[in-house]
Amino acid sequence: MKQSQPSNKTDALVIGGGLVGMSIAYGLALLGRKVTVLDEGDDAFRAARGNFGLLWVQGKGYGNAAYASWTREAVALWPRLDALLREDTGIDVHLRQPGGLQLCLSEAEMADESGRLAWLREALDGDYPYELWDPAELKARVPGIGPQVVGACFSPMDGHVNPLKLLRALHAACQKRGVTLDGGVRVEGIDEHAGGFDVRAGDRRWSADQLVLAAGLGNRPLGAMLGMTVPVRPNRGQILVTERLRPFLDYPTTYVRQTDEGTVQLGDSLEDAGFDDRTSSEVLAAIAARGVQCFPHLADVQMVRAWGALRVLSADGFPIYEAAHHSPGAFVVSCHSGVTLAAAHALRLAPWIAGVVEEPAIEPFNLARFNCAVEVPYAH
Amino acid sequence: MPTEPLFQRLQQAPHTVRIIFEGRPLTVSADVSVAAALLAHDVGHTRESAVNGRPGAAYCMMGVCFECLVEIDGRPNCQGCLIGIQDGMRVRRQRGAREAFTGAISEGRGDE
Amino acid sequence: MSNALVDLIIIGAGPAGMSAALEAASYGLDVVVLDEQGQPGGQIYRNIDRADAQTSQVLGPDYLHGLQLVEAFHASGVRYLAQVAVWQVTEERRVHFILDGQARVLQGRQLLIATGALERPMPIPGWTLPGVMTAGAGQILLKSAALLPRHPVVLAGCGPLLYLLAVQYLRAGVAIAALVDTSERGAVFKHLRELKAALAGWRDLLKGVSLLLALKRAGVLHFHAARHLRVTGEECADGLSFEADGKPGHIPAPLILLHQGVVPNTHITRSLRVEHEWNEQQLCWAVRRDEFGESSLPGIFIAGDVGAIGGAAVAQTQGRIAALAIAQRLEKLDRSRFLRVVKPWIEALRTQQAARPLIDAMYRPDVLNRVPANETIVCRCEEVSAGAIRGYVDAGCLGPNQTKAFGRCGMGPCQGRLCGLSVTEIIAEHRRVSPTQVGSYRIRPPLKPITLAQLAAERELDLSLSPTPSRTPS
Q: Is C241 an 8 Å CB contact of chain A?
């Protein structure tokens, strides 16, 4: 991709080349804007490289109907994003939306999950399809399901995608649409003035009318450069990946997912580990044990890879979509579901950032809601 | 595919055992790795890539390259260069991705 | 906590590991050696305690030199666990491994990593065909299974190990179809600057010279300055084509052994994230260590080829030095005695390392065989070509972790052991920056595959059960 020349002024500067940043950059490019994306180096934390690949709706937004709707709509938009990416790049990101399963290993878990779904159905006026499957139904539809799975919540809204191919497709699509990508950049300062924003890293400079902070955990220090408090903190998730298997699992589930390559991903965890993205054998062992409970035949399957990644978690667990009041033209975007929300980021958020459309759906996700400094427990 | 083995013994093996490779009985030296035992026979390739079916065979013989993956006694994706040959072993080529249900697990299939 | 705590865990039972174990044991340290192989010796002394007279005669005197060390190791009573697959090592010196099909953990007060070297990848067109192996593989088959090439064999590449194997094959009566040497004729004279310093290591130099003379006397067909190597064949190798002295050549053969040096096996050290640095002289990553072998993580030491290629004698001495430092760290000897005892070994090390710069210069692998053309597969596990990697760089990837995310190179069973160096060098060359700026794969556990059932049932190693050192085949 071409690199920018000094003193190039661009329409929009996006800081962060992960799924969030690239989705927004793509969306802006689709509107004909000139976009430059700044990205860190090869060894950055990159939440974009560490996710399960789920396009997940069920259960999300329990207690927050606005988030439930936003998620629902984002997933419904996904086929459009898939078509655009395929047209622009030829890359198939393996979008599959067969419905998904929350497998439950105890009656309590089943009660918990179904209770949340009932609340969500009511909050969305009944427009929230799901089914509760008992062991007999599971056995019929999910070969190899283990006897310790007492039931599952199935929702036709859920699906999965190959998240790494998605990242690659977004890069290629942005390149095709003329987005400039400058890698190896760690932003050190942001200055705002009447004409827009100047960003510096070392002796390099960039200028733009609009600035989008989409740097995940980096949004906290970047926001501070503009006098904003962006309450994001890392939450570690560990994932275990097996050797390739012949296809056996069509439905994505929250604990176990078979990828298009045949590998099986098992996860995950929710840990307060600071900026430590290493794995630990105790957590991996627990993930493995749970995976084997779900599918006993996985007991003799080999784990060949494992990784930890840092979720970008806001203080209340919901996305941040902020148009900075004190710095008009600056935006802060973060979430921990960059895959699920990618289509919404490209096809609804980007137009909102570009100023071509109002987007009342995202008003609840501004920074002002954090002024009451109460952190609620993280909701998956 | 070669019809002859690539390797032969410096001198007669002091002890031999019998194994089965792809349904074919073979007499091999005892006290060698599975990969070495196969190289002394005309087996050609010992795996097919899970990505594109490319035929592969042992390359480094020291557990680094994972080209020597074979199925041993029903267990897939074993590094043949790190496992000693045993009398009666049933060895098969690792053809692409392994099966999800190998039958090596006899409990908890959910339908038994 | 648990009872599974020992003074020193050593990973690797080659010359460095064995030598360190003996030294540490002599100071009363409680040592456990973990070895992936079935018996001690590493790669160089593989199977040495079972080698018969005929095989020993073929392998030569340097091989037999290892016998003393291995016998001393066996006699020492140091706890030795064989056929162990280490799958995780932590900063806190907890080593997770699979032994007899079960996942166990052991904690060391100190840790020595002595995992040696592996063959440098040699990605030439056709290198993935059955019938192509490494010279190291040829040696392993000879040592551990008394196997020799059945047909005239082609040896291709460069470096003393290639010539050694050729001479061993000659002794065994194997026909060598050709030695296709990618280094230049009379390479020693082109590196006079290194030669002077190397003279302190004249024995090593003489060895190399005598090998070449033996090949010449035997009339082995020896091509020099060979370029554009390509393995021919459809389903399997049927020969090697190349260009030497400006003339094209092709040698038909079903077996082609490649070699262009060995490089440190840094898989474990990378997973620990200890500091590494690019060694331009050796064209690979070296582990940063102090003069006694301690890495950038306290309590984690490095000895032998895993840190930087030095050969067996260097490995043995470094093992000893590290063990002394560890013994001092664990207060088995005081600092002033330690410094007195270690001094002669540090000096011996200097002599043993003297010839290395010259050897590195003489047998520097050709960039064409390290940074191949687009069509050549670089990641064998995931079938990723050099061209694909260049494409990912063009799409914005700066280093191997990004190319891994884009194209899966490094995600397969070998987890980047074989492709790592190639990918780093391809990216560096394409971006026109140094390998240091490009970096290397992030290596994560499991370092070896482990089943979910094994993982779920992991427990501390019970040291009270005396491990039976299984004399299994290598």
A: no
